[in-house]
């Protein structure tokens, strides 16, 4: 049985925060990070709540790649506060931290028979993880990144407001934009792909190719910024339904160990993963279709694969993203000495199941060596 879920209502554009002026809510728990507080981005929301006399409590102790400790601390505050609405504001890290708090708190409350689900609103400030429309959250524990998946974590409302991404510096625009591209390409070649997800994925891929480098070079460009925010969301809907692949499994394992930005890791890994997966005939055809959708005219699948991999490399280089894990600054000794455990994590990551190509440990070892 096929299932295509498009749950959150998506409010977008300049007036999208107006939904907060009319919703019936009384007590809001808001999860964000210190940057959003310092940049006063959070005030755009709290000012509206204040003007309505709605109580709000802010939890901002979330760092990039949220840890189990940050989540447990947040859960204690969330439970004690007992809100009727939860708002996650930030990049993937605060949104995922908030989702994880909801996931674990719900499990405990359900077991105790006290279940009352607050409204959940996600407001992304990067373009981005698409976390505002996915049922996934990624939690980091010591040297592991663990993806969780549960429809309980799907927000009820996503708010895409272009003002919230105005303060993004170029390097984060580059990293998070390449994350969008990875989501869309992995969804397009995944084992659970379908016409719904393919259409959204291709739309997101075309937008990233058309607008990301210009947005990196000139963050003031409004049309590009708005379109990338929507592309991020479309890629999120696509991969929430179709799944991802080993690009993300590798990025999860390396991100947890070496603490490098998620999107940057994805960008560096992507061209070689595309060549690796193209050993699967279907995947090679799908990569060629992507190249064709981007306006290239390959004569055969193998040429389409090469064109796509090269086009991605060129865009990454234009945005000063390094071309290898060595250039990214991952220490050689640790990388090679921990490789067996990296491969264990890649094999066990939930994203691996949707990857188009099956592989042996030796093949994965070769890919990881090539990536360095
Ligand atoms: N849930 C999912 O479906 C999903 C998908 C992909 C990645 N992820 C996870 O999301 C996390 C990465 O999220 P991310 O890439 O959005 O970055 P992030 O949330 O980690 O933020 C990166 C940095 O950008 C800053 N920032 C965010 N918005 C800003 C703005 N508008 N202006 C200025 N600075 C801003 C943050 O404060 C932070 O310092 C990783 O942990 C990754 O594993 C989740
Ligand atoms: Fe991602």
Automatic annotation (TrEMBL):
EC top class, as a word: oxidoreductase
Ranges of residues in domain Alcohol dehydrogenase iron-type/glycerol dehydrogenase GldA: 19-162
InterPro entries attached to this UniProt entry: ADH_Fe/GldA (IPR001670), ADH_Fe_C (IPR056798), Alcohol_dehydrogenase_Fe (IPR039697)
Any Pfam family hit: Fe-ADH
GO molecular function, one term: metal ion binding
Domain Fe-containing alcohol dehydrogenase-like C-terminal: 174-371
Keyword tags: Oxidoreductase
EC number from the UniProt entry: 1.1.-.-
Domain of life of the source: Bacteria
Family: Belongs to the iron-containing alcohol dehydrogenase family.
Name of the protein described by the UniProt record: 1-propanol dehydrogenase PduQ
Organism: Leptotrichia mesophila
């Amino acid at each position: 049985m096929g299932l295509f879920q498009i749950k959150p209502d998506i409010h977008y554009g300049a007036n999208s925060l107006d939904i907060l002026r009319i919703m019936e809510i009384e007590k809001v728990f808001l999860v964000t990070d210190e940057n959003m507080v310092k940049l006063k981005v959070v005030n755009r929301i709290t000012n509206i709540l204040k003007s309505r006399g709605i109580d709000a409590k802010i939890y901002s102790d979330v760092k990039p790649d949220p840890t189990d400790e940050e989540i447990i601390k947040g859960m204690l505050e969330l439970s004690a506060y007992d809100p009727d609405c939860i708002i996650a504001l930030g990049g993937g890290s605060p949104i995922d931290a908030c989702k994880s708090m909801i996931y674990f708190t719900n499990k405990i409350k359900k077991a105790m028979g006290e279940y009352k689900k607050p409204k959940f609103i996600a407001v992304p400030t990067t373009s981005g993880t698409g976390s505002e429309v996915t049922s996934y959250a990624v939690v980091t524990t010591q040297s592991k990144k663990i993806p969780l998946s549960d429809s309980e974590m799907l927000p009820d409302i996503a708010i895409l407001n272009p003002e919230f991404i105005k303060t993004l510096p170029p390097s984060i625009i580059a990293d998070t934009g390449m994350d969008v591209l990875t989501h869309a390409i992995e969804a397009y070649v995944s084992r659970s792909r379908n016409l719904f997800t393919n259409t959204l994925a291709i739309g997101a891929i075309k937008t990233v190719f058309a607008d990301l480098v210009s947005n990196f070079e000139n963050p003031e460009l409004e049309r590009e910024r708005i379109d990338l925010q929507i592309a991020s969301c479309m890629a999120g809907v696509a991969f929430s339904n179709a799944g991802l692949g080993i690009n993300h499994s590798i990025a999860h394992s390396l991100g947890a160990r070496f603490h490098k930005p998620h999107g940057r890791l994805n960008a560096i890994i992507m061209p070689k993963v595309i060549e690796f997966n193209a050993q699967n005939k279907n995947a090679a055809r799908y990569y060629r279709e992507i190249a064709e959708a981007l306006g290239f005219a390959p004569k055969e699948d193998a040429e389409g694969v090469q064109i796509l991999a090269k086009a991605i490399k060129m865009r990454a280089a234009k945005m000063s993203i390094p071309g290898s894990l060595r250039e990214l600054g991952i220490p050689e000794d640790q990388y090679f000495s921990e490789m067996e455990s990296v491969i264990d994590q890649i094999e066990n990551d939930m994203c691996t199941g949707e990857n188009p190509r099956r592989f042996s440990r030796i093949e994965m070892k070769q890919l990881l060596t090539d990536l360095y």
